[in-house]
Amino acid sequence: MDKYLKEAKQFLKDTNTVLDIIFVRVGVMDFDTGDQFRDIYNFILTRGELQYSSEFGNSLDKSGRHRLNGDYRLGLSFETYPRGCPASRKTWRRAGCKPWNSENWVKNTSFRKPNAYDILSCLSGAMVFDDVDEFAAEYGYDRPSQALRIFEAVKAEHAGLRVLYNEDELERLNEIT
Question: CB-based contacts of 99: which residues, under 8 Å, 6+ apart?
Fold first, then answer.
C-alpha cells in the first residue's frame, strides 16, 4: 500500500469515518466533454449519524474492465454490456453481439475501482475563494457559466464536509492531495 493510500485510510480511522464506494453507471460527468465515458461511483462518508455523499468519476484510464479495441472512451465495467447487446450473454449470438474476449474487446489492464485516496484527494477541505471571478481566474475557466456551475458545486461540497468535520480535520483532509 502506498503512502498516499495509507494517509487517506489513517484520516478515515482517526475521524471514525466509514467510506462506502458503490458503482452506479458508465457515463459522462458534468466536467467532461461529450465523449468521455467513465465509470461513475457514488461515495458515502458516514461519521456517527452524519453522512455526506456525492458522485465520483473514475479516471478514463481506470474505467471499464473491457474496452473496445483501439478506443479508450468505450470501456465496459462489470455491470455494463456492449451497446445494443442484451443483458443476458446467452442471447448475444442471436443479437449479433460478440463477447468481450473476441477480437473487438480487450481487457483493460489499467482497470481499478477507486479507493479511499482517490476519493478523499478530490474533496475540497478548504474553500479558499470568496467569489467566482477569482475562482475562474485561478483555474483558467473561459466560460463564466461553467466556472459558476463548478464554483457552486465546490461551495456545496465544502458545506457538506463542514457538517462532518471541524476546521482542523478539514485542513488535514485538504492535505491528503
Answer: 89, 92, 105
Q: Which residues contact 6 (CB under 8 A, 6 or more apart)?
A: none
Polymer length of the chain: 177
Q: Which residues pair with 67 in a beta bridge?
A: 75, 106
If residue 117 lies in a helix (H) or strand (E), which one and from where to where? helix 116-120
CB atoms within 10 A of CB 5: 15
Each domain of the chain, given as residue ranges in start order, spans 17-122, 123-177
pTM score, whole prediction: 0.77
Q: What is the pLDDT of residues 90-114, one digit of tens each?
A: 554 554 555 555 566 677 788 899 9
| Residues in contact with 42: Cβ distance below 8 Å, sequence separation at least 6, in sequence order | 21, 22, 24, 53, 54, 55, 56
Q: Identity (one letter) of the amino acid at 47? A: R
State the burial class of residue 75 (Cβ atoms within 10 Å of its Cβ: 0-12, 13-18, 19+).
buried
What pLDDT is stored for residue 34 in this prediction? 66
150 SS3 class: helix
Give the distance, in angstroms, between the CA of residue 10 and the centroid of all CA atoms in the same chain. Answer: 21
- For the stretch 33-70, pLDDT in tens is 666 778 889 999 999 999 999 999 998 888 877 666 65
